[in-house]
Fold this sequence. Notes:
heterodimer, A: 236 residues, Rossmann fold, 2 domains, 10 strands, 40% helix, B: 296 residues, mainly alpha, two-stranded antiparallel ribbon, 11 helices, 4 strands, 73% helix
Amino acid sequence: MLEVQDLHVGYGAVQALQGVTLGAAAGGITAVLGANGAGKSSLLRAISGIAPVTQGRILLDGRDITALPAPARARLGLAHAMEGRRLFRQLTVEDNLRLAWSFGARGVPLAEAIAEVHQRFPILGQRARTPAGLLSGGQQQMLILSCATIRSPRYLLLDEPSLGLAPIIVQQIYAFITDYARRSGTTVLIAEQMATLALKVSDRGYVLRRGRVVLEGRSEELLAGGSEDKLAANYL
Amino acid sequence: MDDFFFSLVLAGISVGSVYALIAIGLNLTFWTTRTLNFGQGSLMMLCAMLVVFLASQGLAMALAVIGGLLVVAALGVFVERFTIRPALVASGGSMGWVVSTLGFGIVLQGVAAKYFGSQAMAFPDVLFTTQDYVTVLGQHLSLQYLVVLALSVSLILLLELFVRKTVWGQAVFAISLDPELALVQGMPVRLIILGSFVASSLLAGVAGILSAQIGGTVDPAFGFDLVLFGFVAAVLGGMGCSVGALVGGLAVGLISKLVGGYISTAAEHAIAFALLMAMLALRPQGLLGRPEVSKA
Ligand SMILES: Nc1ncnc2c1ncn2[C@@H]1O[C@H](COP(=O)(O)OP(=O)(O)OP(=O)(O)O)[C@@H](O)[C@H]1O
Ligand SMILES: [Mg+2]
């Protein structure tokens, strides 16, 4: 269980989050929706320990981690696929995976973990020796997800995994996420602008607007209750 | 080939390999924090002076060297903790570290002058004497220069192997590329930064000892020129590139020795910096520096 209580995040004068409370149930997928600048990334970054929290608490399985530095949180089993295609661009695909694995939980031996990635995304196997910065956008997103999951995390934070990708790749990425969540039992928190996409795969959704939760509920109810248009008109 | 030219070449690459060592020390902290310890020269001086002092107190040479290196390593911790970390923590990227590391170097130089005097002290012959040589193909090769060259090149290769082949070495490189991503992936960034300052100080210490061995003396101002040439080597080779640092170091060493031998020693600095300026105008990323890898 990942819980966020009355979280405030501020960058100097800019208040990105103003008292957000939410929970991500163990083993489930939770969606955080919102328009540009709503505070989705700030929420995920605060959970990871790389955004300035001014007030509130973050709990992992009941343990208060608000004061822990980012690497310590990562060692507790938190993995974060950040926005902006963050990879070590000058390192090869293989080196990116190896580094991610090395500082993760090392649940499975490296060779096995890498073989699993190659089976799931064969293109990453073919391009193992290519610098990550030279991959296409879709391939980069596959690598980012693989780097996050190869750490055998207990909590997985995904920041707009669909951003800037062709619809067919988005489908592939989302199929991977749902499949991975089901197989591994990892607790997943996805930030998305594409509301329907995220609501279809999640159990519960929260809508953020200007740093506050303005709507929450079971994903199917959010999908049914307001049609997509209504959701968009009202909250996004 | 005439003997004079040949001896200059050997002296040049030997001294140049020490510049490369200094350059790599600068690279290390540049990788992890984008900062340089401008007190590096004083650390070189202090380490060499401590070795002279400890040896003069009757300590075995090996112990004197270890003692000097330990002190310098501890000062590396100090530099990271008190001159670099505050600047990095300050939001908006403070340039305070420039002043603090420079200040640290100047204070160290003052302290050394106070306790050891500002006179040059003779550095004992540890690695052969200046008179020892081997003859290869009719050329007299100074053993001291050869040993210094061999030592610094092996140290550089070891370090390069560490960076390329081990996960911790790769982590150092990863931090240079994206420190935030490194944090999120659970790399102990703080520890690695500290380690980079300790390693960088140790390299300075070794470089100090080797230069003092070649030069024969140390004085409190001794590190200043060295770190200047090390800096030129680092930038010339492409800041952050180890092979570049080696090439840059050898180039700077050779050129300065040849200029010193055939034109005048007074021109060494002028030529080195003219070289740096020309280099930067033509190849801003350095001889072997890599441009960013990215797809549009
Ligand atoms: N490093 C920063 N410094 C200052 N302000 C910031 C910073 N990061 C985010 N903000 C501000 O905080 C607010 C929330 O931004 P955030 O990136 O969390 O939103 P988001 O929901 O992820 O948006 P997007 O969909 O565009 O990624 C915005 O007003 C943004 O300008
Ligand atoms: Mg965002």
